[in-house]
Write a structure and sequence with these properties.
Layout lengths: L1 E2 L15 H8 L6 H15 L3 E2 L10 H4 L3 E4 L2 E7 L6 H13 L7 E7 L1 H6 L2 E2 L11 H18 L5 E5 L10 H12 L6 E4 L8 H4 L6 E5 L16 E5 L11 H15 L3 H4 L5 H8 E4 L9 H22 L2
Parallel strand pairs: 1-11, 2-5, 4-6, 5-7, 7-8, 8-9, 9-10, 10-11
Antiparallel strand pairs: 3-4
Helix pairs in contact: 2-4, 2-12, 6-7, 9-12
Length: 324
């Protein structure tokens, strides 16, 4: 099974190391986040991750976008929201450059990360605005979707897949039909596989999420074990969150493996899963991607790293144990 991350990684900023760096720093040209990206890539590779992220180091999942979209002052909307330039492309290109410079990484790739329109909308302030009435205004959602569509188009040639993060959709706060139209607007012309990550308890919404124009749905299973029920009839590829990113303790390899085994036993009753040609390993490789429950930005670096390592070891050991 492919192993990936949901996105963010603990941020370790760099400091000027030589005279050129120090001059750049004095001129305000030194990029302290390049080191953070490097450490994110090295850490993910060391753990055994196949599809890596740039670590989403330059801000939280909302900040990284609203600070670069036209129409915002901080998280306050001050005008019509528009995309004026690529936001994440340079960090993706830098991540690819690091990968290409290292040996034995030809089967590794970088994923693109977009925070979804409803999740962004839920986290911003609409105050005396002439363009949008409130955080649920459909014009706000669709303008955000149009901006994110342009970002997706800007990065798609540099990534192997794009993940849209919409954790808010499990809460019932946003109309799912409007959310679906917004996501479909983003994804309709893209040429790379698309996944959508939704946090929390998804039992009440996952059947509607089936209708979103995405290739994979990514859910939490370590911190929300009742989500395992969706595996009986999920009809899209599944991102299987298998380590709890809310806890600062490291799950054992056996515990992670046990969760994966439990999920696979349920999947064996899924008609879509059973219709895939091949043995159980072939079916899993075509239907399941292993990842953490959520982003890892808030975890201590050593904890995040060991969690990822144990997840990858557990996945590999499980696959070896079930080989036919």
């Amino acid at each position: 099974m492919i192993k990936t991350v949901v996105g963010s990684y603990p941020v370790v900023k760099g400091a000027p190391q030589n005279i050129i760096d120090k001059i750049k720093n004095k001129l305000g040209m030194f990029d302290e986040f390049k080191y953070a990206i490097e450490q994110s890539i090295y850490g993910q590779l060391d753990a055994g991750i196949d599809i890596l992220s740039d670590g989403q180091t330059r801000g939280d999942m909302v900040e990284i976008f609203v600070s670069n979209l036209y129409g915002f002052e901080g998280k306050r909307v001050v005008g019509k929201i528009e995309h004026t330039k690529p936001i994440t492309l340079n960090d993706i290109k830098y991540s690819n450059k690091i990968l290409k410079s290292l040996p034995n990484t030809q089967n590794k790739s970088i994923k693109g990360l977009l925070t979804g329109p409803c999740t962004i909308a839920s986290s911003i302030r609409i105050e005396n605005n002439t363009h949008y009435s409130d955080n649920k205004d459909e014009n706000l959602i669709y303008d955000l979707a149009n901006a994110l569509k342009k970002e997706a188009e800007a990065i798609q040639n540099s990534v192997s897949t794009i993940q849209i993060d919409e954790p808010i959709l499990s809460t019932g706060m946003y109309d799912l039909d409007m959310a679906k139209q917004a996501i479909n607007l983003i994804t309709e012309d893209l040429k790379v596989p698309i996944s959508m990550h939704v946090c929390g308890d998804v039992l009440g919404v996952y059947s509607e999420l089936h209708n979103f124009n995405v290739d994979m749905l990514d859910f939490e299973f370590a911190s929300n074990k009742k989500n395992l029920e969706v595996l009986e009839d999920i009809n899209k590829k599944i991102g299987f969150g298998s380590i709890n990113t809310k806890l600062k303790t490291v799950e054992s390899v056996d515990n992670v493996k046990s969760l994966i085994r439990e999920g696979v036993e349920i999947l064996k009753n899924n008609p879509k899963f059973n219709n895939i040609n091949g043995n159980i390993n072939d079916k899993l490789n075509n239907f399941v991607v292993i990842d953490p429950d959520c982003g890892m930005r808030l975890l201590p670096l050593n904890i995040a790293q060991q969690k990822l390592k144990n997840m990858c070891i557990a996945c590999d050991e499980f696959e070896n144990e079930i080989k036919e």
